[in-house]
Backbone:
């Protein structure tokens, strides 16, 4: 087990900012910090569990059919998780329900399965998946904090006002798709400029 | 062993493994579906009951064809129905309460798949509170001559909810007029 497998995915190889993967959910759901938290949780759960399964099965899966195998495993897992949460925790489903179908189209999951889990041990895969999850969470939470702050003029997380409303006329464009591109573009430029990634 | 038969073995191994994986995951999904089916149905029924009791808080509901009659101390105070319509991102399921005078008592969105953060606001109290007391003529978006403010950036989702409610109200009023004749 190498601890750097955990840390590399957080900042240096950050999925969103360094690898430009998973931009579709990042653009779509970062309109509030609450959404980003829900997505981070659901994402971490699916990424860790699907990549552990794929890593455990890597010797069994032939090279030429690996992609369909990965997709079948990931999609079935997401569906099963969706059904379980819906049945056993309706309140959690209310918050996470809309994010779970979005995870199927999240290319980071398939990307890590292909690039890491299918070539490394189960323990290293766990560290890698956990690190990538933390990196993804950091990325979408920072983007959503900027967008919610400017676009709604406040930050509300599960009913608690973290930043009280400071303006009555927020820049609603930040909540719309252009705001997502602007925020991600400027953050990316700043991170490159500061040589963080 | 000739070259082609080696190829055949490789091919057949991939076929076998992929088939196995599909069978196993398919089987697991079937088991999960069966394990959770009843609980999901219960959760959905609980959601419907919750939405109905939010619309007419102190009423009892009697199911009648495809709508509910809301009774308070045995007296009819309004109607409620669960309806589905098309939104921007998929189906929108809503509970609608109608008063005896043909105005809207309250609207609750039970489930939807609108864009998180934008269209999803049509399920929020701020948007839905506008429906209370509205008549059939007022149930249009403001830019279309009605009385309902659309959610910023989510005109299609807003219009979808307004249309679902208006159509249902129209249908219900038609049915009541028929019953009176």
Residues:
């Amino acid at each position: 087990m190498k601890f750097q497998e955990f840390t590399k995915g957080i900042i240096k190889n950050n999925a969103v900012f360094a690898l430009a993967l998973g931009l579709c959910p990042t653009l779509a759901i970062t309109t509030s910090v609450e959404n980003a938290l829900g997505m981070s949780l659901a994402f971490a759960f699916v990424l860790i569990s699907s990549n552990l399964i794929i890593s455990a099965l890597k010797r069994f899966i032939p090279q030429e059919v690996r992609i369909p195998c990965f997709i079948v495993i990931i999609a079935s897992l997401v569906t099963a998780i969706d059904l379980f949460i819906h049945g056993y925790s309706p309140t959690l489903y209310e918050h996470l329900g809309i994010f779970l179908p979005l995870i199927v189209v999240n290319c980071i999951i398939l990307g890590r399965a292909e690039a890491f889990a299918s070539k490394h041990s189960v323990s290293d895969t766990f560290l890698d998946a956990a690190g990538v999850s933390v990196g993804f969470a950091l990325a979408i939470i920072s983007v959503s904090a900027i967008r919610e702050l400017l676009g709604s003029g406040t930050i509300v997380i599960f009913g608690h006002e973290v930043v009280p409303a400071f303006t009555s006329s927020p820049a609603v464009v930040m909540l719309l798709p252009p705001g997502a591109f602007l925020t991600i573009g400027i953050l990316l430029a700043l991170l490159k400029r500061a040589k963080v990634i | 062993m000739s070259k082609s038969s080696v190829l055949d073995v490789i091919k057949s191994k991939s076929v076998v493994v992929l088939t196995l994986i599909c069978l196993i995951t398919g089987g697991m999904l079937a088991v999960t579906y069966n394990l959770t089916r009843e609980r999901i149905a219960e959760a959905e029924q609980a959601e419907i009951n919750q939405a109905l009791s939010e619309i007419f808080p102190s009423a009892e509901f009697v199911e009648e064809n495809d709508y509910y009659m809301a009774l308070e101390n045995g007296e009819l105070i309004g109607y409620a129905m669960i309806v589905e319509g098309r939104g921007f991102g998929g189906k929108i399921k809503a509970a609608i309460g109608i008063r005896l005078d043909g105005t809207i008592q309250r609207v609750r969105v039970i489930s939807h798949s609108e864009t998180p953060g934008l269209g999803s606001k049509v399920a929020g109290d701020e948007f839905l509170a506008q429906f209370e007391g509205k008549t059939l003529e007022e149930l249009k978006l403001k830019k279309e001559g009605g009385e309902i403010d659309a959610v910023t950036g989510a005109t299609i989702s807003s219009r979808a909810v307004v249309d679902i409610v208006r159509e249902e109200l129209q249908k219900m009023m038609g049915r009541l007029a028929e019953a009176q004749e």
In short: Residues 122-152 of chain A form the longest helix (31 residues). The mean pLDDT of chain A is 87.
